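Section 5.1 Outputs to date
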Amino acid sequence: MGADGIAEWVRGQLLDLLPGSLDPYLAQIPDWLLIVAAPTMAVVLLLLALKWGHGLWDAGHRAIDFILGKRKSEPATAEGQAALQRQLDKFEERVLAELRKGQGARLDADAEAAREGAVASLVTEDSEPAREAVRDFTAGDLREGFAVLEAQARGEQAQAAGTWRRLGALANGVDTTRALAAYEQAFRLEPTDFSTCVFLARLRAEAGDLRGAHDAARAAAAAAATERERAVAGIELGDVLVESGDLAGAKAAFEESLAVMERLAADNPGSAEARRDVSVSLSKLGYVLVQGGDLAGAKAAYEESLAVMERLAADNPGSAEARRDVSVSLSKLGYVLVQGGDLAGAKAAYEESLALRKRLAADNPGSAEARRDVSVSLNRLGDVLVKGGGLAGAKDAYEESLAVAKRLAADNPGSAQARRDVSVSLSKLGDVLVQGGDLAAAKDAYEESLALRKRLAADNPGSAEARRDLSVSLNKLGDVLVEGGDLAGAKAAYEESLAVAKRLAADNPGSAEARRDVSVSLEKLGDVLVESGDLAGAKDAYEESLALARRLAADNPGSAEARRDVSVSLEKLGDVLVESGDLAGAKDAYEERQPQAIRNAPDNPGRAEARRDVSVSLEKLGDVLVESVALSGALDSYEESLALAKRLAADNTGSAEGRRDVWVSLIRLGDVLVDCGDLAGAKAAYEESLAVAKRLAADNPGSAEARRDVSISLIGLGDVLVKGGDLAGAKAAYEESLAVAKRLAADNPGSAQARRDVSVSLNRLGDVLVKGGDLAGAKARYGEDLALRKRLAADNPGSADARRDVSVSLIKLGDVLVKGGDLAGTKAAYEESLARAKRLAADNPGSAEARRDVIASLWRLAGIEGSGVTWAAVAERLEAMQTEGTLFPADERFLDLARERSKQTAQ
């Protein structure tokens, strides 16, 4: 189209749009002015078409076709040339804006540059498919635009690799399945193109194909033409090795890349890109060092990375990207400080990062990325506040994050990332609501998050991340259902989570994370099976989890997390063996766990978690020694555990978890001191534990756990006061405990645990009233307790604990009735207790405790004349347990006593 044709085209469009009365005036407009106005006219028509739809759609299409086709002729003037370029730039901006609106995760600098180049080539390409794709993209119809380009790529042979690459760059972050397919085609046609190999490695890894990603990263290294490209390929390989669990290999790759980047930066001190590359490499190295447990090395790497980013931002104060990089580095530094137990330092880093991101968002209110960064920072801040016990502050942070995420998702309904961010914030909010005891609200949050993740997984069946998110959400829901007493619902959630995790692991056999998720899901399932009384099933689940954890640790000997997972699995297995009465097996598991934990601690002196594991191992070993009546050994273990916990708490004064660990150790110590007969020492331990619990509750008034701990300490103190003969003091302690428990139950009516705590306090209060001779008061308390426990058992028919509690309460009631002379009521209570205990033992044949409860009821009935139960029958049951090896050593005296009474009654 020549200059005359351009002028006539514009005059014709104006004649179509404007009233006929203006025709004479349009005829008098000079051609040169119409030529200059041509690009603007075309964009006006396009915008009218986009705003008012079909009536102007053909005109809008003609506008795009005109501007894109106009390159065949030179504009008549320099002004016309500049105007045309401005309009082409606007088309590029519009296409990029639509792609960003539809994308999921943020693209890195390389991917963003590749996409911008693809858009520029598309807008300037003189072909009908390119013009049609631009029309679709500017209209927001991304999928149709991609389809047009796919058809173009398939139809071309000579330039097909470049066309597929362009499609991959455009779809990356928006439609990852299509992007991956495009880069696969480009790689097939041109396997030596560096950028194709790099993006193919990333997209394969995102889809969970780690072996394929590894091959693509190696291909990138082979295709690299410059030192920087070789270093970038090394980083890509390192990322894949991290995902595969090969931390040593990843560390070597990152270190090699860092050395190259540092040389390049030294050779080009004025290059901002070269210096930024150094910072990114340091950050990658820091992450793999954290995973390997080298927190000091990781902290040094993150601090150096931050220093580089801060210098870059100072040199470029107007650069939003440079300031964002500083905020990212601060967030990473906060992460490693959390791992090391420095919560105050982590909080300061997260707050500085958040402040930076809020300023960036204020400066760029239209930037979805800037607003998303604020949401992510709020979540990080919430995480560290939870660890410090600041539940109210954490809840505020998570709610603010959720509000930002929901607004972003509403603005970008097609964005998978925006919807995922909502699900993450909901999950975080659910966590803090659980800690605060609001189980109903937590369940709502988890269910909303789960619904979102199910839709995301359905929309993106090829996304490993989406499917993993689904598994995690199911576990979270299972956790809150356990807390609420819905064991059947929890079991179903854990089983579904396990099925998802196993499919992911089968699809991605090279992924250490996928295999670890299976192990975690097995542990969760084991936990709920223990709660349900299925000890054999729980043992199977824990053993399978342990076997997986051991294989992962063997494959990744440098991974602190993998070694810790073995330690945790041994602890779980030990716990269920104790419940089953296999004290020897439990002791073996705990003793194997202890050196594992001790080995991890020296390797990770800065990791608070590793040192805490040693303390927990000592506690567990103490527990089994108590059951084995090896009290002196148990006492030694508990005292050593307490000393460790106190040192940790002193090192991390802001950690609520650290102070609570001290509380746990004091409670354990008090218990064993009671068994050893040291009532004064036990009283001191319980009083110290009560002081710790009360301070924690005062510091964290929203924490249901902290308030519950106060109630438990009061019960412990009451128990030792009873043994010391101070019934008045014990009664006061139990009444205070009951008041705390009742307030918690009122605040959390959906919590089975809170209602059970009320029943425990009522039970203890009944005990002390019996000792004080107030049988009527005791009977009233036991009756209230029994009614509560029967309701709990009815609400949670799958809970072995809830059913056992009813049986125990019936024995307590029978005990007080016999003291009052009501033999008929006594016999009825004991018989009901026996019937319940027998059903429970039949349902849980592997439970030593369940069989022991049967004997407890038989024992009482044997003492009542005419009950039909003999001492010989009791002795026979105890002898059977002794033969099986499930009779606790502490119960052997009862066997001797039953035999003696059997002989007496036979004479």
